[in-house]
Model the fold of this input.
Amino acid sequence: MPFDPTDITLSIVKIAIVLGALLNVTPIMVWVERRGSALIQDRPGPNRVGPFGLLQSFADALKFILKEDIVPQTANKFLYTIAPAIGLLPALTTIAVVPWGREFVLHDIHFFGRTFFTTARLFNPIVADLNVGLLVVFALASLSVYGIVVAGWSSNNKYSLFGGIRASAQMISYELALTLAAVSALLAAGSLRLTDVVWRQTGYFVLFDTIKIPAWNCFSPAMWLSMIIFFVSGFAETNRLPFDFAEAEAELVAGYHTEYSSMKFALFFMGEYMAMTTMSALVTTLFLGGWDIPWYNEPATFVGFLLSALAFVVKVSALLFVFVWVRWTIPRLKYDILMRLGWKVFLPLAVLNIVFVAFFILKGWI
Amino acid sequence: MIPTHYFLILSAILFAIGVCGVLTRRNGITIFMSIELMVNAVNLTFLAYARQFHQLHGLIFVFFVMAIAAAEAAVGLAIFISLFHHRETIDVDEANLMHW
Amino acid sequence: MFEYAVFFFFAAVAVIFALVVVLHRNPVVGALSLVVSFFALAVMYVLLDAPFLAALQVIVYAGAIMVLFLFVIMLLNLQHMSEPATRPIQQFLGYTTSAAFGIGLVYYLLKYAVFTALPSGPFHTEASAIGVALFESYVFPFEMVSILLLAAIVGALLLSARSVAPREVAP
Done:
């Protein structure tokens, strides 16, 4: 048999872990969003269902499942039904190329009292360690436009169509700034492979021969601008405030998901939170050092892997909280200002930043 | 390793389907999409031959073909939009002012 | 063996959705089927040891050009316009010509283009190899393509702008 059964089993385990984590982010984020927004707005937030309102997500899920599913009569039924699924696809698949822990040497596996001995192999906690990982991320991110366009068009409703077209115009504009800002992290690493990008950030910058700063890309002055551009474009890509003109509550009714109810709407909701998580994971990998724990050399053992995975989760969670924080703090940008920002500010700045970073690399300062 | 002629035959079939679309349809957008299909079939041929002879030139050519096809799609759709505004129809047989 | 299964599945997907593009009346359905077909072609590119170009295919074709097509179709509301049916003589000639062309092409490929062995050794198609080739041997076409894209942007903007009549100022 050309395939090694242990490798296949380990891959399935990795996929299960990543998918399980991503699919379970939504209930947690719903709670964080509602309690976090309540904290920022100085009100209690949901606190009836369970202690601190922790079971609110279950109540919401139950509501969505039991609601009546209304399909508009003149909608294109096939496209209307698969649009939420198309919206979910990019978020679910992009996380496959993000490394979420340190690779370690796996000797034998103890499972419910039985021990499976394998030859010592290197377990790389990334579902697909592709040579062109970063490009695949951009490829899949560019497919996220289709969920919105198809949802907006197939609802057969002018408000949905306008919301869909505006949202997709915004997304393709900010994709350019996103890609060019990520190129600076790519230049520093010298490789498109995301594991290489993280390994490059595990060293230290030594200041004045005594102070050791972890060599994360966010601590290097040339990359500050690209990190800001990438993160803000991430807001635009996931249609979160201040760029959520697509949903635009109180303006376009609900934008491209006006005509959606119950589970299909819940799928859009989930897709948005999963895209947020994927974007946070990308920012962490490219700029915040991925799974690297500062000032600590993780050993290539299972414990080292667990600590690095925990560091990754902490960083992603911090960024997800920043997403929630920004949503309830900053008002929505007007559409023409939004487009102007994307094309006339971010794109030139991202291009100039590439030149800047290339100069730094040439001088050896990075 | 899949033999190269499998890819060449797939490319030939896609090209023939594109030709069928251009010859048979009267909708301007569908004709454009058939042209894009033909360009992609040619891209596949270039890559099949590049792998057969281990030459990087095939890949570089496909890179340029993609860039040029993007430019062509943009300009072609702009021409189509201005034709549509002028004649209010998508039927390319109506663009016959120079017909004898 | 696994590669053959992947090849035949995605080849079938590419051909079937290409047929949908060419035969279906509604251009929106055609555009979305073309996206699926392009995605299947990207998988073919991966099978041909060119993952960089597969990612580029998805980014450029499926992610940008087809979005442009969909915008044009949706904003001009083209899906409600029905094209008149092609005249039967044109249909007959079109189908027979393209079928004859396709069959002839496949026949001659099978006769003359069956290669037996691939050269040994790995085929270096990483981004670094492509980048080196682009900036060393092909630097002139590379720069010219950027000017061509600028010309395309300016041309598209000029062609699709409606002339706006100056507004009448109320007396």
